[in-house]
Design brief:
There is one protein chain. It is built from twelve helices and no strands. By secondary structure, the protein is mainly alpha-helical. It folds into three domains: 86 residues; 142 residues, no CATH class; 111 residues, no CATH class. The termini are far apart.
Length: 360
């Protein structure tokens, strides 16, 4: 019976093959090529079960399925190359480019198609990970290239402004050098911050619509990890900037080296070190508390982070890091071996009080 059916269907193979190849050569859309590939795969399995794997129609179906699948991935690759060839400019508000929304919408449509595809009883659905990776990897790389270009553009702008300032203020070179050094440092920090925030906004815009989509689970984990890494880097930069404004960054570094012995010298009382003297620390702490209790507050708002949950998370991480840094300084000052004459007067607030001030 199978032999007879094979001979009957054999005559349909050539015209069927020609018609499908015409469709593939007509540059179908990504969705059409994916649906065609899935449909051909379903009937390849079905006909194999019915006529056997060596049947002429079965061989034709497998051949066309492979061709449709190749066309689909070729389209994906072409889209990815186009994204990477023309990375967008970073928006003033650091929002994700329109390409993010377009690609994610396309992926969601592909996921719906994947979920509704027919599966023969003798087989299981194909792995969807290669589709997700082929579609999203170039998108993420495009966002990274745009962020890098934004960072480089900021560096060029800084150099231009620095040269201009030097040309107009050459009479007091020491003062100019100090001012420009501080100005350049602030501009560098702002550019790095905006670059990280832009990447976080892009990654979260890709991640959020895919939450709950089981077939994209592996890539979701990858995105979550990347977002967390960028948030951690953003928080570390912000904490360092705040501590530097207060003059405490170098002090905490000194304490950490003293505890670990990384400075290579025999640790002595901290109060005897010039940069750790009570007078120096008192001035740093005064600045710290002025910032903490002032109208502007000590903690950044991260207003350009588009997800409220990420803004809150980043703010809490900064607060905890500052509180931990204060506690490290507090423990060092009240430690009798460091010879501070009146540690309680110098460190007027306990670590718990600082956590209350920072609302954690």
């Amino acid at each position: 019976m199978a032999f007879v059916l094979d001979r009957i269907f054999e005559g349909a193979c050539r015209p069927f093959k020609i018609r499908v190849e015409q469709v593939l050569q007509s540059q179908p859309s990504l969705i059409i090529s994916y649906k065609l590939s899935n449909t051909l795969e379903f009937y390849s399995h079905t006909i194999s079960d019915l006529l056997g794997k060596d049947a002429a129609l079965c061989n034709t179906l497998w051949l066309l399925k492979d061709a449709a699948q190749q066309t689909f991935f070729n389209i994906l690759r072409s889209r990815g190359e186009k994204l990477l060839r023309y990375p967008p400019l970073v928006a003033v508000d650091l929002s994700p480019p329109p390409a993010v929304r377009e690609v994610v919408s396309l992926l969601l449509e592909l996921i719906d198609t994947y979920k509704s595809m027919m599966i023969p009883a003798s087989d299981k659905k194909t792995d969807f990970d290669p589709v997700v990776t082929a579609l999203l990897d170039p998108l993420v790389q495009m966002c990274e290239k745009a962020a890098e270009a934004h960072k480089s553009k900021g560096a060029v702008s800084r150099r231009s402004r620095t040269s201009s300032d030097l040309g107009s203020s050459s009479r007091d070179s020491l003062t100019v050098d100090a001012m420009l050094s501080k100005k350049t440092s602030n501009l560098t920090q702002d550019t790095e911050m905006s670059t990280k925030i832009y990447l976080i906004n892009c990654l979260s815009a890709i991640q959020l619509p895919l939450v709950g989509q089981e077939v994209a689970g592996n890539y979701l984990n990858k995105l979550t990890s990347a977002i967390d890494t960028n948030i951690s880097n953003l928080v570390r930069k912000e904490v360092d900037a705040i501590l530097m404004r207060c003059g405490l960054l170098s002090k905490l570094s000194y304490i950490q080296k003293s505890i670990s012995g990384d400075d290579g010298s025999e640790p002595g009382p901290l109060a005897e070190a010039e940069e750790m003297s009570p007078v120096v620390l008192s001035e740093c702490l005064r600045t710290f508390f002025e910032l903490a209790t002032g109208n502007e507050g000590l903690l950044p708002e991260f207003e350009q982070l588009q997800l409220p949950s990420l803004r809150s998370d980043a703010r809490i991480r900064v607060a905890r890091a500052l509180a931990d840094g204060y506690e490290l300084l507090y423990q060092a000052v009240v430690d009798p071996k460091n010879n501070y004459p009146d540690p309680r007067s110098l460190m007027r607030h306990s670590p718990d009080q600082i956590r209350t001030i920072l609302e954690i």
